[in-house]
Amino acid sequence: MIALKTPIKIAGYVAGLAVVFAAALWAGGRFDFSPQDAEATPDGAHDDGHGGDHDTAADDPPGGLQIAQDGYRLVPESDVHTGGDYRFHIEGPDGAPVTEFTTEHDADLHLIVARRDLTGYQHLHPELADDGTWSTPLDLPEPGQYRVFADFAPAGAEGLTLGADLAAPGDHTPADLPEPAAEYRVDDYTVTLDGDVSAGTATSVTLSVSLDGEPVTDLEPYLGAYGHLVALRGGDLAYLHVHPEGTPGDGETTPGPEVGFQITVPSPGDYRLFLDFKHDGEVRTAEFTLSVPPTGGHPDDTPSGDTATESPSGDGHEGDDDGGHGH
After folding, report:
1. What are phi and psi of 21, to 5 degrees?
2. What gap in Å lies between CA 210 and CA 186, rounded to an integer?
3. In the beta sheet, which residues pair with residue 85?
4. Are residues 138 and 160 in the same domain?
5. Host domain of residue 25
6. Which pTM does this prediction carry?
7. Would you say 227 and 244 are in contact if contact means Cβ atoms under 8 Å apart?
8. What are the tens digits of pLDDT across the range 227-267?
9. Are residues 125 and 57 in the same domain?
10. What is the DSSP string of 159-216?
11. What is the CATH number of the domain that holds 136?
12. Quick check: is 318 in a domain?
């Protein structure tokens, strides 16, 4: 089974908000989140004050921690969002907006959105205008500090994941990271996570999908695979690249119930996994808390197969097809 333990409780992730969080917790755990509280951290800095606490095993830093890399920069039109379209462009090494991209996983750019407490996950596919401006409708259901990740490959260049902060003003109480569980229930589906993940090593994880207790064997292709997995590290929200094992139509990969991925976590700690899968024309998301112990260590506890978490009402999907879901 997957190595899981009781996660650390996350009270806040942005160093600039530490005093605000502490005061709010002392006063009763609530505070008003205003745009002026949302100071962006320097490019590439760890926003939660952990700094060098992460012992990153990989040579390259995880994605999403920097707003600029290799001459490319994520340029949002605003760092505060109150509704409507979210707009941004990718600035190239020549200082001009990039207008040509390489399609990866059936899209030219993937936009991932999550609140700093790892709630409010969304996977969106913005539209590109001729002038290089990307735009997508974005509804942030709860106030707080969010992180947006642009995952893309400029034409003729390597793929990048750049990140930027985004504030949704209002009264906000950070949520605790959910307890680890081997199962997640969304609608009438149950998704089970299995694997043995170690820091710094590429390992396989398997997610199995069932419906009303019966294995699902007719998953539909979604973004070039039978599932799309996003992993975010607790604390700094480092974005991990996860690769599916096999593709639809390769003569070997079956459409469920199991969907396999190769994942490399750069350091011990807590992670949140988000599996998007498509069945009966609708995309759903299963979410898991994964705790990776130090090398040679052991988790505090491993939940039984009966342990499960449930999808909160409203999972961020807006329709029954790819476009309606915003994926």
Report:
1. -60, -45
2. 11
3. 137
4. yes
5. 15-172
6. 0.76
7. yes
8. 999 999 999 999 997 889 999 999 999 999 999 999 999 99
9. yes
10. -EEEEEEEEE-EEE-PPPPPPP-SEEEETTEEEEEEE---BTS-EEEEEEEEETTEE-
11. 2.60.40.10
12. no
